[in-house]
Amino acid sequence: MELSIERKMESFHYFIVFVCFVFIYKLLQKRRRNLPPSPIALPIVGHLYLLKKPIHRTLSKLSEKYGDIFFLQLGSRPALVITSSSAFEECFGKNDEIFANRPPLMIGKYISYNNTTIGMSPYGPLWRNLRRIAAIEILSSSRVNMFSSVRVQEVHSLVRHLFRGSSSSFKKVELRSRLSAAAYNIMTGMIADQRYYGEDLEDFEEAKRFRELTEEIFSLGLTSNLGDSFPWLAWMDLQGVVKRMKKSARKRDAMLQKMIDKRRRIADVEDTGREERKTMIDVLLSLQKTDPDYYTDEILMGLIWGLLSGATETSTTTLEWGMTLLLMYPDTLKKARSQLDDIVGHDRVLDESDLPKLPFLRCIINETLRLYPPTPVLLHSSSQDCIVRGYNIPAGTMLLANLWSVHRDPELWEDAASFRPERFLSMEADREGFKWIPFGAGRRVCPGSAVGTKITCLVLGALIQCFDWRRLGEEVDMSERPGLAMFRAQKLEAFYAPRQEMFHTISKL
Fold this sequence. Notes:
509 residues, alpha+beta, 4-stranded mixed β-sheet, 3-stranded antiparallel β-sheet, 18 helices
């Protein structure tokens, strides 16, 4: 018995010596490689034990101790974390081309068509061509403006729906589902000339399934996947994440293929050649006719999926946070309504031609994006060895760029944690380097920011103009869903009633 205990103690001592040896070896290796400062790493898992959710808050706290640039070992993946405007400028300015890649993740392989979408494809010829198609053929100012009537129609539909469900006194309403439906209809209208949400629409159930599927895929993307941190474990799929990704991708592809085939049949019997009648799918089908081997249905589905899922989720999230903040700051809500009354009046609901005359409305959106950017942590990857702030960064290092920290940096923003849209009246934040970057930075900046801003400004402006709003109680839930995306954890509920001044105008919509 005593011999057994001695052997166990001896084994334990050997284990401790081994751990100390590994720690000292890693420390010396790190110093020799001139890496940025980092916390103490555990064997095998590295710094994974430190990543509590939500990630952007955890990285911000770590930066208080280790600086605005530090190094993490996430399993077998090295990662560089940056949390300041100057560090962003180093990575997305001087080293922009080097950090223009995405890290190879499971979601890129199984959800993003083996990394062939505009969001996940490696920096190179394919990405450049997809980006060109998005910027020139699909999301150019002229083409986006062609669909102005679609956006206005859906805003009117949202206002009508809320009006019919209202009463003369204040009534509780759950807004997220309605905001999501409006954003989804706007995007499907622009993509396929099709509405999915609304009364007596035959495709309502399909739209509901697609929305549920989209949320499921986003949830899978936020799941901590062992295969991403330890690629040599990926084949085992210990958490079953890959199996769920494949299943969700098959369902999504069937729905997208149906959407494409429907437009293809319409093009065969109708004249969709005129620019003013072309949907985004029509444009892609035209490209497919010129080069069917390159513009496969899979490439088309990747572009459509990026537009539909990205624009819908980011617009809905921004609108939900914007309404939440306005409920918390009623004086700001009153000021925005006053400007709408002065500029638009009460005889009609605002349209897109009014937006340039409503600077405070845009300020509200900008401040909402500052405090709650839809993607608070950007994921990039270095394609070659480089130097950042004097440190050697190896090729293949994952970059975690925490723009949430930049947006709340007290050295950049006065009263940084407060909701103060007025700050944007006297500044062009989007032209001040890497200070306000809700749509990303560098070559990978979001190509759909213009259409997303139009949607959020139009919808939020109509809600402010047409209805009176009150919060449910003294406290408002400001919790965030854990992960790399800034989605609300709880549904937004508020009290609302039609504005007396707008009552007759809304009733005639």
